[in-house]
Fold each of these.
Amino acid sequence: MKFFTFHLMPWDRLPEDFEARYDSAWTWLPNELYDPDHGHTLYNNYLDELILADELGFDGVCVNEHHQSAYGTMPSPNLMGAILARQTKRVKIAVVGNALPLYSPPTRVAEEFAMIDVISGGRLIAGLVVGGGPEYYSFSVNPTNARAMFDEAMELVLRCWSEPGPFEHYGKFWKLKNVNPWPRPIQQPHPPVWIPGAGSQETIELVARKRFAYMGIPYFHLDVFRKNFDAFRNACEANGYTADPEQMGWLLPIYVAQTDEQAWAEYEQHLWYFIKKLLKGLVVFPPGYTSARSMARIKQSLAKFMGSVESRRQLEDGGYVIVGSPATVRDRLQQYITELGVGNLLGLFQLGTLPTHLARKNMTLFAEQVLPALRRELSTEPTELQTA
């Protein structure tokens, strides 16, 4: 069982009347609302929080990629990954991930990920993603090509890491005469690959076939995670093997304080800012972005999306967040992790407007009073996963 700190690096100063004035925190939100001076403070606070995870004994840190969004101000997670590679000593660095169809050519992903792996001494986890629906509006990329572009780019990136160069690549979307990336990653045949998903059957089947790791996209009711992880395990069985728990990851917001009452008192306003403001407009599926069968699965899940939740009771009953005393958080996580059968917990310890002193306190309490017990209770002997 592995424990990661995941960071979105959100914008925490949307106006009070945001919901009434703006349709979305994505793509079309005027960037005059961004204050670079405050952004300087946020970036450095957020990086310090991730560096703290290394000192506290977490197994890894996670960053991700979003564009033109107050939800996450990391258009280049590789920049953050490179900083963390230099300023941490032990943790895995999971960049979850690079949206491959947005890179032209995608060999740039292979190069930059290899740099992070080399700088860190072989600690990179390579996240490869199709990219969220809003990104296709941000970049004016034809969404009907999303899956085909991702598939071609993924195979090209894997070849860059595992096949001696120079070689030629002549695909539908990219034609490259000389593919010969320097540097090459330390981890061979390549770094571990994580692919997140919200229930797309194509993604589940791809990850199972490749024996990669499937990371469940957050903000859904526990029932949605159960369904998707069961589908992934079934897909692994169809490919002739049993899924290892470390091929599955559960991402969710976590907040710990001395008591349940104190935890909710410190956290709740920041959580509702996140739900009501930053999640607004996230669920966008451009025409052709995913197949009809996967869209049907995803639409069933959307009825249980966090954005539609209206009460603390719903948040707790649905397992959308885990908030409380160390004992409460420990017991609920142990129960849910066992039920879901996952081997990676990706905790969002900073969310919305949560100030850095509370985020750091949250991480410290979790590391000191929750993590040791979970390691004891959930300890397993991990198997060596194939990476290709």
Note: The radius of gyration is 20 Å.
Amino acid sequence: MHAAPTPNALSIQDEVRQAFGWSVEDDAESALQLHLLLQHHQHWSLLHRENALQRVQKQLLDAQRVIIIGAGVEENELTRFNQLGDVFVAADGAVGALPEYSQLACIVSDLDGGDYLDAAAKQGQTIVVHAHGDNMQQWEKTLTSWEQFTPFPQIILSHQVNQAIPGMYNFGGFTDGDRALCFTLSMGVDPENVELIGFSLDRVGQWSGITVAETKLKKLKWMDRIVSELGFGHFIKK
């Protein structure tokens, strides 16, 4: 199961583009260029990425509880998630809230998570790298840097257009946080086994990457809608 959890998790992407004045052509161009760049890559070819996806999916399905960490999480909030069978999915820079990565399945990111994201990449963690029209330079710069890491990070690719791109998936959603939820559900995880922490509607979280606060707060309203439509709105601090 790799499809978006609901059709609306995809259709909302068109509404978001219209609301912010973004171009679907730019989103498609970014995704296609990323696909071409990694098509025959030594570490991140389609076969390597599919193997990474299968490993993450197995880890999530085997977990007793999957905790999705948003950018508003406080470090002390994570201490209660230390049971055998707890597994984390981090939204971008929120991975910085984890003291170590033994319970981390993957990070979902459009690559603006800065040093926190790089630190996890240096440890060979798995990152669901998202392509959109405004991050072409960012993913090119970041992946060029990550190629030098030993061990190198594992990569899964996602996009936000309505077309088939080999080795890339549209899991649904918009922000890293709600896309992390869409990704988790797309892997077939039982919603009853999923919890969200660090999701807030009224403030920019401390683990957010470089962003304009006013724009970020507008994006959080879309996050709220997507998460709520998937049945997880009660986890959002309002």
Note: Residues 38 and 117 are 20 Å apart (CA to CA).
